[in-house]
Amino acid sequence: MQTSADRKDRHQYPAHWEADVVLRDGGTARIRPITVDDADRLVSFYEQVSDESKYYRFFAPYPRLSAKDVHRFTHHDFVDRVGLAATVGGEFIATVRYDRVGADGMPATAPADEAEVAFLVQDAHQGRGVASALLEHIAAVARERGIRRFTAEVLPANTKMIKVFTDAGYTQKRSFEDGVVRLEFDLEPTDRSLAVQRAREQRAEARSVRRLLRPGSVAVVGVGRATGGVGRSVLGNIRDAGYGGRLYAVNKAFPEDLTDVDGVPAYRCVRDIGDHVDLAVVAVPAEHVPAVVAECGEHGVQGLVVLSAGYAESGSEGRERQRALVRQARAYGMRIIGPNAFGIINTAADVRLNASLAPQLPRPGRIGMFAQSGAIGIALLSRLHRRGGGVTGVTGVSTFVSAGNRADVSGNDVLQYWYDDPETDVVLMYLESIGNPRKFTRLARRTAAAKPLVVVQGVGSAPQGHAVRATRLPPATVAALLRQAGVIRVDTITELVDTGLLLARQPLPAGPRVAILGNSESLGVLTYDRCLAEGLRPSRPLDLTTGATAEDFHGALARALADDTNDAVVVTAIPAIGEASPGDAELAEALRSAAAAVPDKPVLVVHVELGGLAEALSAAASTAPQAAEPAPGAEGGARPPHRPAGRPPTAVPETGAPTAPGTPAEGARLIPAYPAAERAVRALAEAVKYGQWRREAMDPGKVPEYDDIDEKGAARLIDELLARGEGLTVSDAETCELLGKYGIRVRRALPAPTPDAAAEAARTLGYPVALKATAPHLRHRADLGGVRLDLADEEQLRRAYAELTELFGKPEELRPVVQSMAPRGVDTVVRAVIDPAAGAVLSFGLAGAASQLLGDMAHRLVPVTDREATSLVRSIRTAPLLFGWRGSTPVDTPALEELLLRVSRLVDDHPEVVAVTLEPVVVAPHGAGVLGATLRLAPPPARDDLGPRTMPAY
Fold first, then answer.
1. Could you tell me which residues are beta bridge partners of residue 95?
2. C-alpha closest to that of 120 among 80, 73, 75
3. Which of 255, 508, 551, 703 fits a 20 to 30 Å CA distance from 868?
4. What's the pTM?
């Protein structure tokens, strides 16, 4: 019975410490605080721990917990004494606790900032990474409660626990006293601890997806007795695809004497299956799903694909049903694809899983595909499945995931799997929304450094059923940030397939120089024009005339590829008339043989009414996995260069038996064919930009240090300002003071409420001066006449003052100020904001119409490196104005880049600076002057990317 003293000892339950985590083996567990209600669970848990593990925990034989022990380990104040448990199915599998101690090692309270920490993991769950996950979470809790350092005493023989501490990446000390290893480590995250955490996250999430995509056994729950229906269709699709594992049909309505359905063993419930089941495909009405999930969880099923509809896509009642589904599955350690999913596919020869509504297994290939929408998934699969005609040829799929409402498994999880999946060379994703933009950008950058990632992203509101964070950034800014991360962002499904097929079949171009040749002058000119429009550098088209033979094409292509001034070649072809005109198969072989001799340059074909050519270019070829060659410098962390699907290290076929006409030899080069010039050129332009990003990503630059930055002084000032309220726009004087801590000098402006005050201000600053109206409707609006420049003396100043008040009203309405003149230059604007979903974003553009009317702004995620600052300045369309356009004097872009880097440092070091705008920033031939600045402070939004690993909350 709980006493009043017990109740007094308990602080408010910290529900925000609860979290679901993915473990090393891909399973899941729930981490939560231990409470007084957990006494029975604790005792049961301890009884299942081996004597050896108990000895390691207590340094002595400790067969059972006393009543005093149980009370101690379940009564916490959640400040100085905290216990967390990892649970599966509601039962404890591991515990961790800390006790705050003073310098003498005795129990203490704040401000003592040290605590002793101890773990106990059930033997059956050791090796799953449970202790590592618990350490991340208990460290985050301790930091929240003002604890900065953990100590732990471990027996030397307890090597597993010592490894948990030493591998965590924290700064630590180690000593040996009285037969015990003593470890001390600071809890402040370090670059190494974050790297360790993210590497563990990647391995765990990739393995959890792998368990879904490579199951050893599958049960389809909801198989109808009659033909038709979702469950029966999926069962047939799995069977007909040649799935290599064990397959079961389940329906509680089956007669007791029914033993099989279409040759597949049949059972009334999952519990009746005598063998282990890895994956359950659920196709029952939504109201029956909870019972199925319970059966699967009790039977040890590892994952679910829920095809059933009636969840968040159907309204508020469905949303609550979806939350309950996720909570129930996670309680059993299972992951979910869906609900309302189209299904999953794995074409690997040893798997051949088609657990989807697609009637046929796609051809094996090197493209991984993710779609949130089932309809889009069908469209993507059908495009890639068609052979001959169009652009697809026979390029195939490695794996396919349609996540439906993605209540659990999302695009981020699948990216973690594809990152080091040896079966996947190119990733195509259709995203209707991005649930965690900060994490997606981080994962996308890492994936894109290893293999191309092509994305179509919806720009409207999030579909029903998708729980996403709101972002205040416009779609154009989000697109720019994705491109910064190496994502190839396209606008349509057609462009997604076009670009993906080029990247799967061809090498990356080394630059933008394009040769064009073919038998149609007009088609060549059209291709040339499209290249110019896409920012490529085409040479004049070579017209082979309509009488060109296959040999003519072969020779022209061979010469173009051998020319060092060409980075890629586009071949155009139209039907020819005459006895000497080449057939489709003959022309395809001529192009393939020429391309094979120079395997490091991409070749594309634009064809008109030559569907047979597209088929012949890829007939009987395959993108099945080739033997992997070792990555050069693998030990040093270097990545292997991207190699397109279907191509071995050399594209030149070995000599041997002749192949049939039009059939490429094993390992021959696949050439993508497009029915329109604009589609081919757009795909090539994306490949060029991606290739450039890959080269630049090898040396991303660094975040420079500046000796004159006063980070601690800025922190003190921010604390003082925030003490006034939760969020505020800082005054001009305080803005200048705070910016000055980071070496950002704002040109002084003095208020001028009267003509005499204006004259006095001008005498203080020195002539020439500028007179500006700072009222919101006139600020930065020189075009309206609210700014008067180059006032050389008091007479001109007083005349300008009179004109302003006559035109726009009383001084108290205009809020005039006097400012000394800056050197002439180009007016620019620098902004930084902290978006709750994407994080801190730095933006740059030219002031005035270019940025306000045309939206010509460039964006980068903070922190910005020196190389990124350089590219930021050059990536706006109006950048030539900074570099001497039409004979103007070039301005001091290095000074501008330094200013950008200082602003980046400010918002990165102090996330309380939620918005800062410098406008205008006049960039002169020598130096850059900040003439106006506004700054807003607020408590920073929570950053889940720096905390412990967690799954999205439900």
1. 85, 120
2. 73
3. 508
4. 0.82
